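Help needed: design a sequence for this.
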């Protein structure tokens, strides 16, 4: 499963990229606003840090303007992935862009039927929001299972990008179901490294090593 980080903050992206475990980045208008920086500038900087897809979202709601915005965004870097909403106009834009060989991430997916439409429109990624699904009394992981089954039934190439990830259990469940990608805030990805027994084991090893009075260097 690929790991994307969901942020527009540069330093957390640099830190995770340095681990060699980061496969891409997702952003959205809310994350850009939170960063307080220029949209084009921050997107270009992110594209220079990671080799994988960097999702940059259009903000228009009509197909014609989406296409114009996409034309500007995809000139930022070769690894820009155009992010569009799961609407009729969004999917029209997805079909047009994917037919030209441009990566497209279809976002705000909340049903398997929507995911089916996105795959038929040639989406590179579909982004079902599991956390928001959970918030509204549904099981977000049931949605991922349904999409996985449908995509496997018809051999769709669209990758399932699990979004709105809130905790490490979401990551584990997505991996068990067979999601292609998950995107999470930096704090959730860092939490994957942590386990109380790992910390306790390191503490014990260090205490025992100190007793030897030795040094490797």
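Sure. Designed sequence:
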């Amino acid at each position: 499963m690929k790991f994307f980080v969901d942020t527009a903050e540069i330093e957390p992206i640099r830190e995770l990229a340095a681990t060699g475990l980061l496969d891409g980045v997702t952003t959205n208008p809310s994350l850009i606003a939170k960063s307080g920086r220029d949209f084009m500038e921050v997107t270009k900087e992110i594209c220079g840090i990671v080799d994988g897809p960097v999702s940059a979202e259009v903000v228009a709601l009509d197909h014609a303007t989406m296409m114009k915005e996409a034309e500007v965004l995809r000139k930022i870097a070769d690894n820009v992935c155009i992010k569009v909403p799961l609407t009729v106009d969004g999917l029209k834009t997805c079909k047009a862009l994917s037919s030209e060989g441009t990566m497209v991430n279809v976002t705000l997916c909340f049903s398997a039927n929507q995911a089916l439409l996105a795959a038929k429109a040639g989406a590179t990624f579909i982004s079902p929001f599991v956390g928001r699904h959970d918030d509204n009394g549904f099981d977000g992981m049931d949605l991922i299972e349904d999409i996985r089954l449908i995509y496997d039934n018809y051999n769709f190439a669209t990758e399932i990008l699990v979004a709105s990830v809130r905790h490490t259990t979401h990551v584990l469940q997505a991996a068990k179901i067979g999601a292609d990608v998950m995107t999470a805030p930096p704090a959730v990805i860092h939490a994957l490294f942590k386990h109380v027994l790992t910390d306790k084991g390191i503490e014990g090893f260090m205490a025992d090593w100190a007793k030897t009075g030795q040094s490797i260097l």
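The mean pLDDT is 97.
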